[in-house]
Design goal:
heterodimer; A: alpha/beta; six-stranded mixed beta sheet; four-stranded antiparallel beta sheet; 10 helices; 10 strands; about 40% helix; B: alpha/beta; five-stranded parallel beta sheet; 9 strands; about 35% helix; globular
């Protein structure tokens, strides 16, 4: 089987400082990969390099495109990459306001991404937007309200709806449950897991919350100082960590 | 079905003076289809460790662990994921679920994962929950708030939903009353009868004698603590 995403030797420097160095892995359809590490470990740099927000200094990010098979997204043209990020890719930001247009209604936020891929029929767009608001458990009556009037958890769910409405195959998530209170986190986890299973999505989730990766991710990478120090099955890395840093990370979690 | 060849494991505790603990040394065993084998030995002998190695959440340093011909020690993560989805079931002592998900969906999930229809999965989940005496009014609630015994029965229902050819059972009858214990033992006997290869840990001696064909004392593989 061809990997959906093949990351090879991705390296990014900030001057002399290492952002991430020589990171490689293959992600297959339907797999969820977690990336954990403390702040400054390079996990967000890596995510942004993969998603095309940053240009890596070295390495390849090969995506298995629908039309042309595996293509290196680092060297493809800007319009091609932008097209990917509107169609087959989605990016869920930690802060919902970074991924939403705050001045546009909830329905408009979801519909905008549909229009970007060529949908023109107003009724269809509104219908799909309403359907997706329902799936992320936002009341249909709020479709014409702006996200500024939404709670943090609702904004995050709206961001997810906006991202998934075009049926992407790969979702990048940067701390998707960070900053949300625990009951809202649980709701979001439940939602994400259902979407992954029902839509066959692949996802890469950056987080520092080990409980989140245990429930969501099949596989896990542990990063420290820009390097991947350990990678494997999620429960293997969490239950039997091999590297000194992973052992420290796992043993530092407070039990509830 | 399940075969271990010269399997060994050590723990290296990097943050505790890099202590190296040899926990399992040179285990070879095999379990055929339709057979149930008990792991025995005192607490700390390494029964759960060995079981986790066979499930792959503990890393094995040496040897081969073959499940249906796939060597778990060398397999890629995605092959292990596929093996756990299709072939190798595990009933642990603890229920670990996404909060807020209904009990019925928790139990049906392994069936949905192997591609079963939502209706069939739900029907099987209902059948198992009813059999294990989980009151119907609880089915739509998350099991996170259930009592210990109820959680364990939900865990068992989930573990037996898909007909895995190989199963690992960690104390499946602990904290169950006599009636439910009897139901779980009959589930194990049914699984054996359909040809599942089972490895179990049972502190409940009567249960062990009843369902297990052989016992393997894990202490013989435990070298004791080395530096």
């Amino acid at each position: 089987m061809t990997p959906l995403l093949s990351v090879q030797g991705v390296t990014k420097f900030y001057g002399h400082h290492i952002g991430c160095k020589n990171v490689g892995f293959d992600l297959y359809p339907g797999e969820v990969m977690g990336i954990v590490g403390e702040s400054g470990s390079g996990k967000s740099t890596l995510l942004n390099c993969m998603a095309g927000h940053l240009t890596p200094d070295a390495g390849a990010v090969v995506f298995n495109t629908r039309s042309d098979g595996p293509r290196d997204t680092v060297t493809m043209s800007e319009p091609e990459r932008r097209m990917l990020s509107r169609t087959d890719w989605a990016f869920v930001h930690q802060h919902a306001r970074d991924g939403l247009r705050m001045g546009v209604s909830a329905g408009g936020n979801v519909g905008e991404r549909l229009m970007a891929v060529g949908d023109r029929h107003y009724g269809d767009i509104r219908g799909k937007a309403a359907d997706w608001l329902g799936r992320v458990e936002i009341d249909a009556g709020r479709i014409d309200d702006r996200p500024t009037t939404f709670s943090g958890g609702m904004q995050q769910r709206l961001q997810i709806a906006r991202n998934l409405v075009t049926g992407p195959r790969l979702v990048f998530m940067d701390e998707p449950t960070g900053g949300l209170d625990v009951s809202v986190q649980a709701r979001l986890l439940d939602l994400l897991r259902g979407l992954v299973r029902d839509m066959g999505l692949s996802a890469i989730i950056v987080t520092h919350d080990l409980a989140v990766v245990r429930l969501l991710a099949d596989r896990l990478m542990v990063m420290k100082d820009g390097h991947v120090v350990e990678a494997g099955l999620t429960d293997q890395v969490l239950d039997d960590p091999q590297h000194a840093y992973s052992q420290l990370l796992v043993s530092s979690v407070l039990q509830v | 079905m399940i075969e271990l060849r010269n399997v060994s494991k050590t723990f290296t505790l990097h943050n505790q003076n890099s202590a190296v603990i040899e926990v399992i040394n040179d285990v070879s065993l095999s379990v055929a289809a339709g057979e149930c084998v008990a792991l025995t030995g005192a607490s700390g002998a390494g029964k759960s460790t060995l079981m986790r190695m066979i499930y792959g959440n503990y890393l094995t340093q040496a040897g081969q662990i073959l499940i249906d011909g796939v060597d778990l020690v060398q397999a890629e993560p995605r092959d292990v994921i596929a093996l756990r989805r299709e072939t190798l079931g595990y009933v642990s002592q603890f229920l670990r679920v996404v909060p807020r998900v209904a009990t019925l969906d928790v139990v049906a999930e392994p069936l949905r994962a192997v591609g079963g229809s939502a209706e069939d999965a739900q029907a099987r989940a209902e059948e198992l929950l009813a059999k294990l005496n989980i009151p119907q009014r609880l089915w739509s609630l998350s099991p996170t708030t259930f009592s210990g015994g109820e959680q364990q029965r939900v865990n068992i229902a989930r573990g037996f939903a898909h007909l895995y050819p190989a199963m690992l059972l960690d104390e499946p009858t602990a904290s169950l009353d006599a009636e439910n214990r009897e139901i779980v033992l009959s589930l194990i006997e049914e699984a054996k009868a359909r040809g599942a290869a089972i490895i179990g840990i049972f502190h409940d001696e009567a249960a062990r004698v009843r369902v297990c064909d052989r016992e393997i004392d894990v202490s013989q593989f435990t070298p004791g603590i080395a530096a």
